[in-house]
Design a protein that fits this description.
The chain is 65% helix and 10% strand. It contains 5 helices and 3 strands; from the N terminus they run αβααββαα. Strands 1-3-2 form a 3-stranded antiparallel sheet.
Length: 107
């Protein structure tokens, strides 16, 4: 019982500290998240990468983008979307990370 309480307290502190300290512009999201929440195709995102229009990182064959880069693309009207879509991207990314973290704890 004491172990469960300690774990709950640690989870609470860890989750709130991370949420406060994370600058949303520094969050990295993958291609799937960008395409899904901005409603653009993989091909459009690929064209932007090839043209050097969007900065990205390639890790083990997966592409990742900073939220700040995605916002810049929206501001420069290089992709069409709206502010609600970018907020959906950020919100759902947080949920996705939390879900993965919970899966690791259960193992």
């Amino acid at each position: 019982d004491l172990d469960n309480k300690i774990t709950a307290i640690a989870d609470y502190i860890f989750n709130h500290t991370e949420a406060e300290s994370t600058n949303e512009d520094e969050i990295w999201v993958d291609s799937y998240e960008v395409c899904t929440f901005l409603k653009i195709s993989e091909k459009t995102l690929q064209r932007l990468r090839v043209a050097g229009t969007i900065a990205y990182s390639n890790i083990r064959g997966r592409y990742f983008y900073k939220i700040s880069e995605v916002k810049r693309m929206l501001e420069e009207r290089l992709i069409k979307s709206n502010k609600e879509n970018i907020q959906d991207l950020i919100t759902n990314h947080h949920l996705y990370v939390k879900e993965r973290r919970n899966l690791r704890k259960d193992k």
